[in-house]
## 1
Amino acid sequence: MNALGVHLARRIAREGPLSIADYMGEALVHPGLGYYMSGDPLGRGGDFITAPEISQVFGELIGLWCAVTWTGMGAPDPVRLVELGPGRGTLISDALRAAAGVPGFARALDPYLVEISPGLRAAQSDKLAQAPVRPPVRPPVRPPIRPPVRPPIRPQWVDHFAEVAEGPLLLIANEFFDALPIRQLVRTNEGWSERLIGMDPEGGGGLAYLLSAPGALAEALVPARLRGAEPGETVEIRPAAEALIGAISEAIATFGGAALIIDYGPAESAPGDSFQAVRDHRYCHPLADPGEADLTAHVDFQALAGIAGRAGLGVFGPLEQGAFLQTLGIGARTERLSAGASEETARALRGASNRLIAPAEMGSLFKVLALVHRDQPVPAGFEKMGG
Ligand code: SAH
């Protein structure tokens, strides 16, 4: 058993079985031993690869989306640009580069990166230092010898969204919500139980799943729309994601702004066990070697949209990622980049874009949800208000 496993075994001996949320919290963000807290989880060969790492076009289109949304907000200055879980900083640096040409936008930005991992904070800082944002190119009287370069954008790093200063808000999150802790409730023949994690009574004394005694406590946690699950089915709830969306929605309702949430999960809530672990690009058992694999669960877009809607926001989507990127012009942007590139690079660019939009790849499983202040226009890429 690894060091985090020993720590968890002691905690279980002391406190009794853990919820899956307790376990995810420890395995992902335990100081020193959690997956995101030790080194660079996205660096060492990469356990998984995300959309901004596949193609620069992803971050560029999101940057332009932010700039257009900002214009629709009445171009507030300052505006908080918040990215939740920026990973290696690729999305934000591609986004800022692409959006720098929109007059006034770069100057108005007060960027915040919500990031808990020290290793990834360092990677984000390096990435942004490499990518100075140029001011918009205006027709010069005489062509300058070198284009003037603005000092690199200096974001503030915070651990939690609650630390972001109040004000008009543009928020982006790609594959962040899937890392937030979930709880699992299981419909048994005797009623609802919670799936917990304790010590395996047999075998080598490792961690093992168990079920709480069925009862009203677990049943009370099941959302009404999922109470009809069949015996044997699992229902997931996401208290941290819901609280966070509540706080974001309140900020947007009060100060104006928008949030763009991209992640994987179904458009409509459904029973199912989506808790998974990935290590070295392979699925593994979520309880094996805690802290050494990435743990995620599907995002419940219907639940998030419901909370934002009740807070009075305009809710757009969820749309499939493929459709969203195509509406924003991924095809044209890819061709534009390919035109100036070698045949090999052009092939790679087209292949990367295809991976983002093809239904069999990331195009359908990944969804995009936009939450917007009621007085603002329909956000780019969406047609009309949804649920
Ligand atoms: N958005 C990036 C990275 C996704 S991985 C991309 O698309 O490539 C998830 C990111 O969220 C990582 O940067 C991770 O360190 C961060 N993260 C995970 N849980 C967090 C938490 N509870 N608080 C703050 N950041 C967290």
## 2
Amino acid sequence: MGVVNVTPDSFSDGGLYLDPAAAIAHGRELVATGAEILDVGGESTRPGAEPVAAEEEMRRVVPVVEGLRELDCEISVDTSKAAVAAAALEAGAMIVNDVTALRGDPEMAPLCAERGATVVLMHMLGEPRTMQVDPRYDDVVADVKAFLAARLQAATAAGIAEERVWLDPGIGFGKTAAHNMELLRRLGELRELGRPLVIGTSRKSFIGKLDGSAAGERLGGTIASSVLAAVEGAEVLRVHDVAEMRQALAVAMAILG
Ligand code: HH2
């Protein structure tokens, strides 16, 4: 899953693809280098980010989805607002990537059920504005697993087919570096939920915590963590650098056979 951030303020590529033509060109490049899914987002969820109004988010996302719909890939919309998801689904998206796991907007679950969209349910402790202020868990893996199980149940209760649900532990969303690494180490426990796992470690700050690297210097850490996640059974890797990720994955999987 290649990331297309149509935002001025995303943590690693904010402002680079705010112009729809630049975002579309970037999406094309990601597909040409091996992305099977493009995740188009119009609101940053980085720690401390301020919310964006639905109208503005739609204005950013819809033309980009329309410009990418003809490509040989699936399009996901990274939003927690039902109005934005509805417009993106209308424009050609088939996946709704909701970092609030359907808790952010009461209209989101019925919309996804009615449209038959695939839904990514992600774990987040708190909200982006405050989530990195002293996050605590009893057992981070058990807590995240229980949360994802409950959200999966809420999704199916709302009429979303279980086969349409993917789960994501939300690396970096209300977690310390130690929490993130424990989740990655024990990913097998989340596989027990029986749904495909999405993992997004790309350029995140836990990598910088280990070696002091800035967001633009975390490709090695992104690849190491994503390859290990794939080996542990993650099926979707959400990354900014698709070409390098593809190569790393191909080599790792060839060796493992
Ligand atoms: N991470 C980000 C955004 N959306 N969605 C899922 N399912 N999983 C993730 O780990 C995830 C996500 C943050 O990355 P990015 O989009 O690059 O940054 P920003 O939120 O600042 O736009």
